[in-house]
Specification:
The protein has 396 residues and is an all-alpha fold. The protein has 4 domains: 43 residues; 81 residues, Orthogonal Bundle (Cytochrome Bc1 Complex, Chain D, domain 2), CATH 1.10.760.10; 163 residues, Cytochrome Bc1 Complex, Chain D, domain 2 (Orthogonal Bundle), CATH 1.10.760.10; 74 residues, Orthogonal Bundle (Cytochrome Bc1 Complex, Chain D, domain 2), CATH 1.10.760. Helices cover 53% and strands 0% of the residues. It contains 20 helices and no strands. α2 packs across α6. The radius of gyration is 29 Å and the shape is elongated. The N terminus is likely disordered. Bound molecules: heme C (4 copies). The site of one heme C has 20 residues, from α3, α4 and α5.
């Protein structure tokens, strides 16, 4: 079908071309048409030479004469799919994709200009590893084992919380099998001072967001050991716990990664935590409301009951390493992210600037940049995964 359209196109334009520009020009045009059959036969084939001239005036200061960008925040255009470039230019021009630089750059560009620019840039060569500084190209990419890395980063926590997140110190919570999202929230709450505790504030002060994510994934996947204790009445505690089940799960085993499991938690810690909500030292409207009417004895009964409950196995999912992620990305972006011929609207990402890849993935993740495929793909990604993916593809 494509070939037939292309030959029809050549037949239709042949006489005009012969008349206008003579034989050699016609041969050039007809080879081009065979190589990339025009999708809409009504339009003339794109003219990369015109694109080159326009690019030198309007694009080169940021994207380089040949599509090799002049600074990491500007994406390379060399070797990018032409269809994708046209799509991107239209999106900037209409404001659907936001970028002040590109809004200016696309002002007044016609569809033909865009196709010419796209044809030119798509034909330029992108060197292997072009997304990385020259000194860093060609080095083998080292994947990480997220859990091993999280364990390593949690070394300083083990003294109190236990190496596997099962603390043996009364008053210190076990972290094993807490939801990963809850662990992240709680750690940030100490770091930002929303949850007041001098020891914990000091412990987490130096952790980066990536460290916090990795440590949380590690603890969330550890098996929690029961810590039965407390001096309350667990039978009365069980009756009272009916008011907690909707959020904290059956027997205190939460299924929501943002709500902490209470099953098998240290009773002394549970008393401190509930009291902190009651006194307003720990702020959380929902929880403050849930426990405000409880008497001191009821709090102890609840703590004793939950500490005796059998903890459920961890429900968190192991975060994927780069090799596992790349397998999925390549289904749309092709081997080494070099693009798929079958799907020219999917951009090439291999060899793209590392800083730009990070920015693009974050933009999808935060839904600033709209695309249903990429929003879905980037939603579960952690910051460290985004950085490693960018590093990986930039080096291809
Ligand atoms: C002042 C600097 C600047 C100039 C000049 C400029 N661009 Fe850009 N361009 C950018 C920046 C910054 C981005 C990334 C914006 C974003 O994050 O979406 C970009 C992105 C793009 C993209 C999207 C690439 C991708 O991988 O999604 C295309 C295509 C593009 N530019 C083409 C052009 C063309 C064609 C011209 C000339 C007509 C041009 N640009 C001129 C700065 C510039
Ligand atoms: C010196 C002992 C100590 C060390 C070391 C320590 N913690 Fe803690 N941690 C505590 C205590 C005590 C609490 C309870 C504080 C409170 O009542 O808010 C706590 C609470 C927590 C909580 C809240 C748990 C929950 O169920 O809400 C998290 C998360 C946490 N720590 C993470 C860490 C991480 C990560 C590290 C290592 C970087 C660490 N802690 C190191 C003593 C420690
Ligand atoms: C509407 C949902 C909801 C209900 C009902 C609820 N909780 Fe909570 N609970 C939460 C959430 C969410 C948090 C985490 C709050 C935070 O980040 O401080 C929490 C935290 C806690 C904590 C702190 C755990 C830790 O590891 O630090 C304790 C203890 C607790 N709840 C006990 C109870 C008890 C006991 C009841 C029943 C009387 C109850 N909750 C009812 C949602 C609820
Ligand atoms: C189901 C197909 C599909 C999968 C799987 C997929 N992508 Fe994409 N990706 C797309 C499409 C389509 C676009 C272009 C969207 C647009 O126009 O904004 C895109 C755009 C991108 C961009 C922006 C490129 C640029 O030049 O601005 C990056 C970066 C990216 N994808 C990375 C990834 C990574 C990393 C993965 C794996 C975690 C992945 N993609 C998985 C389809 C996919």
């Amino acid at each position: 079908m494509r070939i037939r359209l292309a030959s029809l196109f050549i037949l239709a334009t042949l006489p005009t071309l012969l008349l206008l520009s003579g034989c050699s020009r016609q041969q050039e045009e007809s080879t081009k048409a065979q190589q990339s059959p025009a999708e809409q036969p009504a339009e003339p084939p794109a003219d990369p030479q015109a694109g080159k001239a326009l690019a030198a005036q309007r694009c080169a200061s940021c994207h380089g004469e040949e599509g090799l960008s002049t600074a990491p925040q500007y994406p390379h255009l060399a070797g990018q799919s032409a269809d994708y470039i046209v799509k991107a230019l239209k999106a900037y021009q209409s404001g659907e994709r936001q970028s002040p630089e590109m809004k200016t750059a696309t002002e007044g560009l016609s569809e033909t200009d865009m196709r010419n620019l796209a044809a030119y840039f798509s034909q330029q060569q992108l060197p292997v590893g072009a997304g990385l500084p020259e000194a860093e190209r060609g080095q083998p990419f080292e994947d990480v084992d997220p859990l091993a890395l999280g364990q390593q980063k949690s070394a300083a926590c083990g003294g109190c919380h236990g190496a596997d997140g099962n603390s043996a110190i009364p008053g210190t919570p076990s972290l094993a099998a807490l939801g990963d999202e809850y662990l992240v929230l709680a750690t940030h709450a100490y770091k930002g001072g929303m949850r007041e505790n001098d020891v914990m504030k000091g412990m987490v002060a130096a952790l980066s967001d990536d460290d916090i994510d990795l440590i949380a994934s590690y603890y969330a996947l550890q098996v929690r050991k029961p810590r039965p204790g407390g001096d309350g009445d667990k039978v009365i505690g069980e009756q009272l716990s009916a008011a907690c089940t909707s959020c904290h799960g059956e027997h205190g085993n939460s299924k929501d990664p943002k709500t902490p499991s209470l099953a098998g938690q240290d009773a002394q810690y549970l008393v401190v935590a509930i009291t902190a909500y009651q006194q307003g030292k720990r702020k959380h409207e929902v929880m403050q409301g849930a426990v405000k009417e409880l008497s001191e004895a009821e709090v102890r009964n609840l703590a004793t009951y939950f500490s005796h409950m059998e903890p459920a196995p961890p429900t968190a999912r192991k975060p994927m390493n780069v090799s596992e992620l790349v397998e999925r990305c390549n289904r749309c972006h092709g081997e080494d992210g070099r693009g798929l011929e079958a799907n020219p609207a999917f951009p090439r990402i291999g060899g793209q600037s590392e800083a730009y890849l990070v920015k693009a993935l974050n933009a999808y993740h935060s839904e600033v940049r709209k695309n249903r495929f990429m929003e879905a793909m980037s939603a579960p990604l952690k910051g460290w995964q985004i950085k490693l993916l960018a590093r990986y593809y930039a080096g291809k």
